[in-house]
Amino acid sequence: MAGRRRVLAAWAGLLALVAATASADTDKSLDGYELTQHTRIYDAFISYPAPSWYQGKDPLDMSEMYRDQKGPEFILEQIPKGEAFNSWTRLYAVRGTYLGKGRTLPLDRYVNATLLGYVQMCGQENVGVSPVGQGGNFLTLLIFCQNSSKGQTDIGYGHGIGQITLIRFYAVRNTLLKVYQEWRGKAFLARDESSWPVPRAEVTMMIERFDGIEVSVSPLR
Prior knowledge:
By secondary structure, the protein is α+β, with helices and mostly antiparallel strands. It has three helices and eleven strands; from the N terminus they run αββββββαββββαβ.
């Protein structure tokens, strides 16, 4: 516990860097912002917007897809059409974890476990965290990995590769959820937007889209 507090304290200092069964379908619209995908994950039913590379077509037609469920873990990932899952530049995903009937986990502990994964991949000195939204059952963060020096090279990470993640966390009954988009490219400095692997405007657009995410208790649970 003391170690976790030290890590969180370090992240607070880094804020100065930047002031069970699941089914999916898509509602189509002429406006990409309004286009919504739907997924049922364990206790939750979630509606979430299109990824940033959507350009007026069904995002399922513009994406390579990966979907898997193993017991209490579910994941649905999208990357731009033509890219590969070991070398993508943009990735959009929904993940769910079912804790078991009657079991819960405080949202902050779920968030902390995720952030520790970034420290392991990038090194604490390369991680910055900026809160961008919070509600009664969710938290939205922007996570900066300036250099994934300790990441797995066989899936596109390693020294010289950086990543920015926009992620929203939810807790619904016995289910934990996270929705996120990641941008990956050359190592960068968080304080220097010109070095980011994505234009600031695209990040801002996705922050606005994430405000349209809706999560409710699944009627089938």
